[in-house]
Structure formats: C-alpha cells, structure tokens
Amino acid sequence: MIARDTLKGWGFVAPALLWTLAFFVVPFVVMGAMSLATLEGRTLVWGFSLANYAELAQKAYLWRAVLVSLEITLTVTVLSILLAYPLAWIIAFRVPPRWQRLALLLAILPFWTSYVVRSYAWLLVLSREGVVNKALMTLGLIAEPITLANTRIATVTGFVHFFVMLLTLTIFANLIQLSPNYRRAAMDLGANAFQTFRHVILPLTLPGIVTGAFLTFVLCIGDYITPQILGGNNELTVPQVIMVQLGRRADFPLASALAIVLMGLVTLAYLGCARWLRLDRI
Amino acid sequence: MTAPVSIQHVDHWFGTYQALTDIEMEIAAGEYITLLGPSGCGKTTLLSVLGGFIAPSVGRVLIGGADMTHVPPAKRPTTTMFQDYALFPHMTLRDNVGFGLRMGGMGRRARHAKAEEMLGLVGLADAANKRPHELSGGQRQRVALARALAVSPDVLLLDEPLGALDLKLRRAMQDELKRIQRAVGTTFVHVTHDQEEAMAIADRIVVMNAGQIEDQGPPARIYQKPASLFAAGFMGEMNRIPAKASAHGIETPFGQLPLAAPGAGPLTLCLRPEAIGTGAGALFIGPATVRDAAFFGTHCRAHLSPEAAPDLTLIAHLPAASCPAEGETITLAADPAAASVFEAA
Amino acid sequence: MRVLPWIYLTAAFVFIYLPVGALVLFSFQGGGLPVPPFDGPSLRWYADILGDEDLVAALLHSLAVAGGSSAVACTLGFLAAYGLARHVMPGSALVRGLLIAPLTVSYLIVGLGLLMVLQRLGLPLSLMTAGIGHVVINLPLCFAIIYASMGAQQQNAERAARDLGAREWQVVTLVTVPMLMPALLAAFFLSVTLSWDEFIISFLLTRFDVTLPVEIWSLLRSGLSPRLNAIGSLVFLVSIVAVFLAELLIFRKRP
Known about the structure:
The complex is a heterotrimer of chains A (282), B (345) and C (255).
Chain A: H1 2-35, E1 38-40, E2 43-45, H2 51-58, H3 60-94, H4 97-108, H5 115-126, H6 131-138, H7 152-176, H8 180-188, H9 193-221, H10 225-231, H11 238-249, H12 252-273
Antiparallel strand pairs in A: 1-2
Chain B: E1 5-14, E2 17-27, E3 32-36, H1 43-51, E4 58-63, E5 66-67, E6 78-81, H2 93-103, H3 108-121, H4 137-150, E7 155-159, H5 167-184, E8 187-192, H6 195-201, E9 204-209, E10 212-217, H7 219-224, H8 229-234, E11 239-246, E12 249-252, E13 255-257, E14 266-271, E15 276-277, E16 283-295, E17 299-306, E18 314-319, E19 329-334, E20 339-343
Parallel strand pairs in B: 3-8, 3-9, 6-7, 7-8
Antiparallel strand pairs in B: 1-2, 1-4, 4-5, 9-10, 11-12, 11-14, 12-13, 14-20, 15-19, 16-17, 16-19, 17-18
Chain C: H1 4-25, H2 44-50, H3 53-86, H4 92-100, H5 107-121, H6 127-148, H7 152-163, H8 168-197, H9 200-205, H10 212-220, H11 226-251
Helix pairs in contact in C: 1-11, 2-11, 3-6, 3-8, 3-10, 6-8, 7-8, 8-11
Keywords (chain B): ATP-binding, Nucleotide-binding, Transport
Pfam families (chain B): ABC_tran, TOBE_2
GO cellular component, one term (chain B): ATP-binding cassette (ABC) transporter complex
C-alpha cells in the first residue's frame, strides 16, 4: 500500500524533476566539465585542465573583476539593508493599518519594472543632462554637471534602488508577523524604543534580514544588465567579463570557469549565513 | 511591592464604539481581583488602560495614589502578563526573566541571581538555560509570570493567563497563581471569561458586560446574591421563573413570595439549581415530572416539568444518593432566601 | 521625533519613484531628448513605437514566451507540490531541495549552461529555447508558492472527497485545484511578470526572433531617446497590470 502511494507520488513529481534534471542539472554538469576543457585555436579540447582557473588567477582583468563584483555586491547589500529596514519599520508600525497595504504596494511597485528598463531609467536620471544634475544646478549646489552615469556610483544606485524594494518587502513581512505583544512586553518591562529594537525586534527579524541579504547577494553578483548599462566599461564585473568571453571570443571554457567562480562566491555567502537562513521561507 | 489602584469615571471609545462606560473601581493593595465577562465586554480594554497601553478617553487611573492616566507602560509600577505570553524566543529563560532588570540597569550578576530566584518561585529553577520553545504551555505561563514579577511591580495585570491551557492544567495553575500572589503580596488584576476560574482564585470578582460593571464583590456574594440578571446568569446555571409584582411582594406560578419587587413591570425570579430540593422550603413548587436525570458525582442533575407551570423547565441539583427515574413525579420546594428577583430582560 | 518617520517615508518614495517618474514623464516629451526641460505632453513617441513592426513583433514574442513558460512552470510546480505534499516519499527533502535549487543560481549561469548544452546538441536557438530557460527559473517559485499553500485544510477536504468515492483525478480537479486557485494564479502571474521582464536568458537563448527586453537592449546602443521611454512605460504598465491581477485574485478570496 505504501509502495503504491510512493509510486504515485513519484509520478506527480517526475515531470518537474525531469525538467530540472535535463535543463538545470545537466547544463550545470556540462558547464563544470567545460571549465576544465581548453581552447586550442578555435577547437575545443575536453580534458581535465586547470588552465582556465590559473588564467583567472594570473590575469589582472579577470581577478580584478572578481574584486569589483564583490565590492559592489557587499556595498549594495549593506546599503540596501540600512535603507530598507527603517522604511519597512515605518510602514509596519507608523503607517495606520488601513493604509499599510497600499503603502507597501506603492513602495514596491517599481520593483516590477523590467530591469533593462529600470537601468535605462536611472541612466536618464543620472546623465549629464538628467534630472539630478539639472536639479542640483538649479539649487546652485553645483556649477557644472557632474559625471554620475557610467560610474560605480550609478551601478550601486541602480542596484540599491531595486534591492531596497525587495528587502522592504521581506523585512516588512517579518516585522508584521511578530506578535505586537513582544513590543508591548519589552516596553512594559522598561525598555525604551531603542532598547526594544536592539534586544527584541532586531534579533527576532535577523533570519528575515539574512535571508533578504543572501537573496540580494545572489541576484546582485550575477547581474549583467545593471553594471553594463549604468557602470559603463570603466570597470568590469564578473558577469560582464563572462559576456565578453562569450561574445568576442566564444571562449566557453573560460566563461564556464568564471561562472563556477561566481557559484563559489555564492556558496561562500551561503555558508556564511546558513545559520540564520530560512530558504524555505523565500 | 504592592499598591492600591483607583479607577475613576473611565470612559473609552474606539472611534464611535464605546468600549468602556463609567468605570468606577477601587482595588486594595495586595488584593486579587478578577475581571470577568464574555468576550467583547471591555475587560481587556480596561486591563490595557491599567497597563498604560491605552489612554482612556475620559477619567483617571491612580496607582498608589499617583495619577498614572497618561504615564507610558515602561514608567508604570505595573507589568502585564500577556495572553500569548510574549516570551522572547531568542533568549534563555534566565534572560527573559532578567530582561526588565537589565532594562532597569541592574548588573549582570545581580540580575541573574534575581532571575533564578524568580524561576525558583515558579518551580523552574533547573530550566534557566532553556529557551521558550523547549517548554510546555504550562511552563511558558510560569516563565511569563516570573518575568512580570521579576521587576517587583506594585500591580500585576494578567490577560487571560490560563486561556491557552487545557482544563486540568488550568485548574492546577489557578491554585499556583493564588499561592504565588499570597507569597509576593502584589496586587493582581486577572482577566478571564471562565467563572469557575474567577471563583477559585479571586478575593473579589468584577463582572463586566457591554463596557459596564454589572456587579463587584466577593465570589460567594456574587454567586448567591448577584446584583443584576446578567451577573446572575454569567456566574452559573440559573432557573429563570417569570413573576410580577403584587401587593405583598411578588407573584409567581408557584404562589406569592414575600420578596421586594424591584419594579412594577414583568419580573424574573432567579433560583440556582442547588436551591431546589425535595425537602421543606418556604417556596413550595409542588409536584413535578422528571424529564431526565443524570448522575454528576457530587449531585444528580434533573430536568423537571412542574405541574403548576407545565411550560417551564426547571433544573435541579438533587442529592446524588437519590437520583429519580425518568417519568417519576417528585415534590419540589425551594428556599426563597436563595432567590433573587430582577426586572425581566 | 514625530515627523522624522514621515520625512524618511517621503524621501524613500522620491528615491523609489525618481527613475520611473522620469521614464514616464519624458515618454510624453515633445522634442527628441528625454531630459529636462519637459516640453510635452505629446503622444508622438507612442505613435512612433506602435507603428514599429519589429517592436510589436518582439512584444508579441514576449507575451507568448511569458504565457507559455508560466503555464508549463505552474503545471509542473503544482504536480510536484501535490506529489510531495500528499504522498509518502523517501528522500522528499532532497527532491524539494533540488526543485528549489535554481533559485540560488544566477540567471546568467542558467542561461550559459543551457546555451552550451544546446550548442553541443546542435539545436537551433529560438523563442522555444528561451521559454525552456524561463521554465527552469520559474518552476522553483511556482513550486514553492503552491507547496506552501497546501495546508491541512485542503488535505481534509481531499480525504472527505475520497471518502465520498472520488477517484484521484477527480480529487485533484474537483477539490485540490479549485481550493488552491488563489495560489495557482499568484504563481502564474508572478511567473508571467518575471518572464516578461527577463533579459539575460532570452538574450543568450534566442537568435532571430527576440523578446521585448532584448529588442530594447539593442535599441539602447543608440543612446537616450523618448522612444525608449515610451516602450519602457508600456512594459512597466503591462507588469503592473499582471501584479494587480495577481493581487486582486488572491485577496478577493480572503476578506
């Protein structure tokens, strides 16, 4: 009886499982094998060579890309949490309950803009002729337009904009599900607003924050569009370098090695915060 | 520590809904009070007013003689034990119980000693390093009590503290709460909708309904001589017998009774089931047919149709030893001193 | 202290709406540059893009890929969730982990891996291959959303149906699916939105027929233009409609 039930269960799971195996796991294995292959001229030689990884360690434009990616991703993650937490807090505890849903909906609405369009929109805002420069000049804060587009500032701004919305959503969900009695109990026992936050609310929302931070890390470090449109080509991130390998030189082995490195960074981030992660709650 | 509480003419509105109407109450230092009533009667709102979570629309709250009406919860000599306990899940029991002391600036060593002492008081001395999720419901309830008492409040406010426990545990915890209250001497204000719990535990019961106080007094007095029809019904099972005022008192289907009529209109005579018996009594009900009877250990609970008023069904608690059979006719009488008369609702 | 939260809230909203606001405002620009000063309103750029056959084709491609891949992802996700939630299976935690795994991998890597496999097999790139990629990234989300909403309440209703003589397929179609409709629709529309906006997988896995984000990308090379603003505003509008539909369908049932 149990065996029949199990068989039925596998029947239901099989399509999804096969799809994931065929189009996710197999490509992944191929990519791993590819990272160990080499290009001789234009022909691909399968093998077990660490040449691609060695090249990565030797060539400055490759390992610098890893550093740039890490710097940008960490900056973005920290900034986004610092900006999103107060926003989520205000919506959860300061906005009257009847307006809460609307406030949250509005706060994350532009989240649903296509990321190509969103990056373009920031380019518009940050360009020499754009809204920010025009506003600063009208206010008399600057005399000449400053260069914002095609810099790391623009990349970080574009990323932070996106992840503030994402994190506001996850942190809000975390805050609102806490029993209001936790805050009441803390205040009742003599804690002031800061102590209540520091000793009660922050530890209780930490799993949510870490989950959001991990999500930010994963999405940010693997994104090609935002740095490509907003950062220009002054400094390249790992995804940009991967695309260069694919486009100009069709160097799949090196691109695969870079992708594996990217995966390695994500795995490190995962191990770093596994203690608090609740991936089942994403 | 302990202090008296004085609630003076408190009204409270939520928008256009009046949750509390003209609440007047004096609580002596060290008294154990229960606020009893159905859900939505305003008892939890009143507790929130005492705890400082709600500032009343009108009126004053004095604790230990000082006006506390607009003092925030943190600055009041009260602590609240919440219905869901609100134990901090990321802290050990020691840190939970010591939380208020830490906020008050007490040093680590003294705080831990005091927290462990409080855990000892509630019988959890060995569990100081555990976290709330490792405990049973009854144990959590004890920790919440220890946490609230650790800061030595003058007044402890308990919001349905036993509501989440099963019946057997609830009865055991009642005795425990009473013991701890006697040991610390703090004024306890305890909200509940369970009248048995209220009677078991309170020095004085305050019966509330629709935002008003219906009755307040010692459990025995409220049970035997309730001040209102609502209080009579809420305190336990009650026979309601229609009556009207007459020249010599009141007139019932079972004859005249020399009881003072509270009004000229239709009246209700209230008789507890245990006040009706087969023995002698000044209120003679007469022969009645037993519709059914069930054995309850301490008594026999019977539904009866009196011949004098066949439309009426009386409930009587008869001695367990003499449980009548179904269809049997027995002669009933009651003591009018155990009866109360109200205007009919 | 009282006004500080409101100042922060306002500042946050300005930051959040600055790019979208500029995008939409300058899509109505009269002149040829989408920068201040605003000299509209004019609808000329909307007329311009709606007359552009390549763009309209890309838009239709995007809708087809989004709708098709979401339907597949939702169906597979539902079946897997039903199997895992309702049947006793050894290693079910491992299966769940495997199904969720693509969530933690960059779209770029998913696309790159698929691209290499397709090239090895000599299969041509098309909208179909992009759709396959979109199912890979949306399946974990659909599965997670539907799995999370398969509570004990549904299970009891299913048992009752079985008790009353319904066969397995009747239980699924008459009880489980209707009860899970809000979650199914939420998963579908979320998936549509993500697929509609997705760039990198579409970019790597399509060749001649492309989706809208890829088309926009190629237009971007010629720099800022009110045309792009108009396209972007329309894309945004479609996403918002999908989000509102999801919102409406889910929360209408929960008063």
